[in-house]
Amino acid sequence: MTNNRRFVLAGVMGWPIAHSRSPKIHNYWFAHYGVEGYYAPLPIEPGQLEAALRALPALGFAGCNLTIPHKETALKFLDRVDQSAARIGAVNCVVVDRNGELIGRNYDGYGFVASLRKAAPNWLAESAPCVIIGAGGGARAIVDGLLEAGAKEIRLFNRTLARAETLAADFGPRVSAFAWDERAAGLAGAGLVVNATSQGMVGQPPLDLSLSELPRSALVADIVYAPLETPLLTAARQHGATPVDGLGMLLHQARPAFRDWTGVMPDVTPTLRAAIVATL
Q1: Burial of 238 by CB count in 10 Å (0-12 exposed, 13-18 middle, 19+ buried)?
Q2: Residues annotated as catalytic (active site), given as ranges
Q3: What is the pLDDT of residues 39-51, one digit of tens each?
Q4: d(CA 273, CA 268)
Q5: What is the pLDDT of residues 70-84, one digit of tens each?
């Protein structure tokens, strides 16, 4: 399916924004699917976010993505937000509707779960407990995505226990918080462990986590994609578990946003992935 009826404008707002891979992803899809359009990096300082968002309809934009530091702040400037964005407390996709209203959505949890299913088609969220390391914005989106996928038990570990307890309370009885020094033992019987912190990223120390108690049938995922192979994923391979890098989440969260703006649900192809890997 292609849609050539109008020129589709979209972009990503952030500060800074030059590092974003989103323009390359979406402009690849515009060309691949024959959709007339362009996706631009939009460097928006924090104090200018409301004005930038309100300008989208007048400028003819179909919508935009949001990244650091705008995901949470944007909630108060939008006309409506979907249930997922409300639960997560953040927006990563804005859609301009026919009336010029701004609708906020969050596809980060969707993107994470889709990346797991791409890496391990037989994985089921409900089959074993899920462990998440971290309790920030990324962790909130992943908790929401896993619960929507059917997870029955999610164990949270964060250096600041109170923050993990707050997150767990926000999402209900299927989510529990535990002390940081219990994280290695907490992997026992898990089917998935996720690093939702920045540890392991270029310039950051590796995540301090022993996988000795983790079943070898488990998936080990990292939201970090620079580097693509983090120390945690290397440890997962050595342990015999299935590693899932953070690039899949980035690629898959972009799919429903592109669909919302163009009417075309794109695929994550090996060619697209290779093009983005080449930029890392």
Answers
A1: exposed
A2: 71
A3: 999 999 999 999 9
A4: 7
A5: 999 999 999 999 999
